[in-house]
Amino acid sequence: MVSRIPVTLVVNGIETQLEVTPWTTLLDALRDHLHLTGTKKGCDHGQCGACTVLIDGRRVNSCLTLTVMKDGAEVTTIEGLATDGALHPLQQAFIDHDAFQCGYCTPGQICSAAGLLAEGKARTEDEIRELMSGNICRCGAYPNIVAAIHQAMGAMGSAS
Amino acid sequence: MAPTIGTPTSRVDGHAKVTGEARYAAEFDAPGLAYGSIVGSTIAKGRIARIDASEALRVQGVIDVLTHLNRPHMAEGGGADEDPYRDDVAPEGSPFRPLYDDRIVFSGQPVALVLAETWEAARYAASQVRVDYDEEPHVTDLHRRRDDAVALRERTKVRGDADTAFAAAEVRHAGEYFIAMEHHNPMELFASTVIWDGDGKLTVYDKTQGVQNVQCYLCGVFEMKPEDVRVVSPFVGGAFGSGLRPQYSVALAVMAARALQRSVRLVLTRRQMYTLGYRPGTIERVALGAKADGTLEAVTHEAIGMTSQFEDFARNDTTWSGTLYRSATAKYDHKLARLDVSTPCDMRAPGAATGVYALECAMDELAVALKLDPLELRYRNYSDRDQNEDMPFTSKKLRECYRQGAEAFGWSKRDPQPRAMRDGSELVGWGMATGVWEALQMKTAVRILLTANGHAEVACATSDIGTGTYTIMAQVAADMLGLPLDSISVKLGDSTLPHSPVEGGSWTAASVSNAIASTAKAIRTELLQLAQKMPQSPLAGATPDDVALVDGRIVSKQDAARAVPIADAMRHAAVDRIEQETSADFDEDDGYARNTHSAIFAEVKVDEQLGVIRVTRVVSAVAAGRILNTKTAKSQIMGSVVGGIGMALHEETLIDHDLGRIMNADIAEYHVPVNADVHEIEVIFVDEPDDIVNPLGIKGVGEIGIVGVAAAIANAIYHATGKRVRDLPITLDKLQG
Ligand code: FES
Ligand code: FES
User: Fold this and answer.
1) Percent of chain B with pLDDT over 90
2) Is B703 labeled as catalytic in the residue annotation?
């Protein structure tokens, strides 16, 4: 009998109790246990970035993260970015710049961009390109993704 | 209300996609869902000698393990005329039948399906299934089979005597080019969630480009009635052609649901997605002969593509020169090498992406031999007729593409000498190429439901794989019905909706839009009849063509003062909803060739010491008839250019020919462009009015954007370095070697 391990996560501001097997990834916990399917699975191997979420404010590949290791952590997913129905500036910028086509990489791109802005490392478009290269977009929306992040940087006052 | 057609309208499904609300095939839920995990064969050819699932069955949570020995009944198939496994887009042959028997025909072929209460249990138990094989010798190397390749049954027309003309030409170029096998790698994993609705009825959420194609296939394979299988696919996380044919995964998911009589979800791993279709590796030989002034006199284009042992997949690689350039003689030949691999399938601009790559590199090499500017060579051979069919075009604004593209790029400042342009330690190269695709259209039906409160629902069983179908459908309906965009809701991706072919070949925008226009006309006709029943109707005597729907009113085109509000007309007749469904069918035997065209200009920078290549600038000028939405269409072209960069520099599926198995079946080892690989991309839509191609003048932009991109980049690399690499992808070892 495999024992399940109780874990408490604060997901999008809500304290959530889970019982998971030790090998359940945070990605599968979000998608299959909590039905938060906004976080996407593109490879399950840390190669594509579709599963990017924010853990305690840092961007992380949730497919490479075991749920049991994150007891007590604050997890923000795409479902938690909008506040009171108002889109996060990045979400609005992605719509304005058509920074996606199929939309499958988009939650990961947006969460990753939110992490990027918090890091404060990217100043130029070249730096955005470099620091967003862990998030693959097979639809090839990259130029629009860079433009959207640049717009949101300005809107959030972190551009220079 | 200003029309929305032709404007940069934001996607109507954008909000759902940026908030995570858009649900894809693996994201639908049902009580008691079981999870599947596939065991793939470790050999490329032979037979299954023995399968031992006893260990797997002991894993806690495992429900069952299906193999060819214990699977439920499925149709026989096997290449008969009415083979139920053949779908709408199946090539000639006998389609693969999953878990059908003990034969192994490609590496990774599913041999068992583990079903469990959780995904983790299914995945672990799959690793515990033991399979023994009787292995047979396999061949997976295209180059080894090139001399045994078989000619396609359909032979293309020959024009004049190309061999003699080539031999006599003043200037000649002949070269062999190679395009590596590529996988689509959409970001979403192939997935099917099959909901057991009871009584054998199923709702299948599937990742597909054609819900009705999948429905029809499932009915054939499992001998089910169409009313018992509903296939739904509201959002598709990319496909690029990989979702045109039903995958073995959807058949297995349905098989499992029928076996367990409960709902099942089956998601492929990224590795397993490499056992699906792919762009076939292709050898292309192009020979061009010209007069000293550049006039083409002979074109020979031969292609050898890979296919499986059980289906002959091929698309037109060779005849594009006849659409683009004038040449007195032409000869085309296409052969297939049958290998022990899965069947290739359509991948963005199938045939053209590969064939035009070879043609356009060969044109560049001919220009070098002629000491002529490559753009000038294209101008000198410009053709106003499709020479293969000897027909005029409905429209061909390629000359404008060349002119506007060259100007935006600054082509006139190009130093023709290779290695002449530099930027610090990098060599700079400028290259160009032409692109071409067909303007296809297919019979499609659309239903519109208009309610008296001024809202309309537009429905069609087509799909939106990221191309923007939701948005353009809403735009066309809004404009044709005279309603604001947010009064339109769009339904698609559901097999119960009006008929649509698969979404592919760039035909969706033209087909669906014209069907919306014809259905809107039927609505307008009915509204006019209602309006004319009103006392002293200002529209008395008007015909449907005399009126338009504008701002919620039925308005006379001659006299805008003569108008009736739609709501009044409906209220007066005590009608609260009007529903119409019509099909758009297209007569293509009208003596015209239908094509889209493009000119691509690329700048590369190559580190002289390291050979690292960067594509720093691309200008793509496209002539594709009426552009419905300049924002989403631009994204399609941009995405295609990114795909072209991948094709030129990164993408290559590598097979270990000893094992017959793909070596780089993931997205770390199979390289696709990432953000840092992509720099400036400028997209220009050249004005191309066309009232012949179809009533709305739409040609579609799904494929045209990738055609020619790899050639423009390869030509730029030659210009930068003086080294001609003809094998794609152009990796730095080939450049340095
Ligand atoms: S799913 Fe986690 S990186 Fe791809
Ligand atoms: S929008 Fe399709 S993968 Fe990025």
Assistant:
1) 96
2) yes
Among the partner residues B19, B240, B666, nearest to A45 by beta-carbon distance: B666
For A43, which of B120, B635, B667 is closest by C-beta distance?
Answer: B667
Centre of ligand 1 to C-alpha B442, Å, is 37
Q: How far apart are CA B313 and CA B91, in angstroms?
A: 5
Pocket test for ligand 1, best of A26, A28, A48 (most atoms within 8 A of CB): A48
- What type of residue sits at position B463? S
Q: Which of residues 501-560 of B touch A (CB under 8 A)?
A: none
The CATH classification number of A5-80 equals: 3.10.20.30
- Interchain pair A142, B13: CB under 8 A: no
Give the A:B interface size as CB pairs under 8 Å: 177
| Residue B340: per-residue pLDDT | 98
- Residues 6 or more apart from B101 whose CB is under 8 A from it? B68
Cα gap A51→A69, rounded to integer Å: 17
Angle of helix A89-96 versus helix A106-119 axis, rounded to 10: 130
Structure tokens given for A107: 């939650």
C-beta atoms of B467 and A101 within 8 A: yes
Please say whether the dihedral angle defined by the alpha carbons of residues B592, B596, B601 and B604, taken in this order, is positive or negative: negative
B675 vs A: CB within 8 A? yes
- Enter the ipTM: 0.97
* Distance between Cα A110 and ligand 2 center (Å): 12
- In angstroms, the CA B2 to CA B550 distance is 10
Residue B563 near residue B538, CB atoms below 8 Å:
yes
Q: Which chain B residue has its CA at the smallest distance from A83's CA?
A: B19
How many alpha carbons lie under 13 Å from residue B455 in its C-beta half-sphere? 6
Beta bridge partners of B629: B7
Distance CA A61, CA A64 (A): 6
- Measured from the Cα of A52, ligand 1's closest atom is 2
Peptide bond into B91 cis (omega under 30): no
Would you call A23 and B120 a contact, using CB atoms and an 8 Å cutoff?
Answer: yes
Q: Please tell me if the CB atom of residue A51 comes closer than 6 angstroms to any atom of ligand 1.
A: yes
pLDDT of residue A1: 52
B13 contacts in chain A (CB < 8 Å)? 103
Structure token pair of residue B412: 């006139």
Alpha-carbon distance B270 to A46, whole Å? 12
Of A30, A39, A45, A78, the residue with max ligand 1 atoms within 8 A of its CB, to mutate for a pocket test, comes to A45
> How much is the average pLDDT of B245-252?
98
CATH superfamily of A89-155: [2Fe-2S]-binding domain (1.10.150.120)
> Would you place residue A160 in the very low, low, confident or very high pLDDT band (cuts 50, 70, 90)?
very low
Place of tokens 């499904």: B13
pTM > 0.90 = yes
* Beta bridge partners of residue B203, listed in sequence order: B195, B230
pLDDT in tens, A70-127: 999 999 999 999 988 899 999 999 999 999 999 999 999 999 999 999 999 999 999 9
B737 vs B733: CA distance, rounded Å: 6
Q: What is the number of the ligand 2 atom nearest to the C-alpha of A109?
A: 4
Minimal C-alpha gap between B16 and chain A (Å)? 9
A30 lines ligand 1 (CB under 6 A): no
User: Domain residue spans in chain A?
Assistant: 5-80, 89-155
Enumerate the residues of chain A whose CB falls inside 8 A of the CB of residue B631. 98
Domains and their CATH numbers in chain B: 25-137+187-238+243-273 (3.90.1170.50), 282-440+590-736 (3.30.365.10), 442-584 (3.30.365.10)
**Residue B110 in this model has a pLDDT that exceeds 60:** yes
Alpha-carbon span B478 to B549, nearest angstrom: 10
- Interhelix angle B352-370/B630-649, rounded to 10 degrees, is 70
DSSP string for residues in A136-150: --TT--HHHHHHHHH
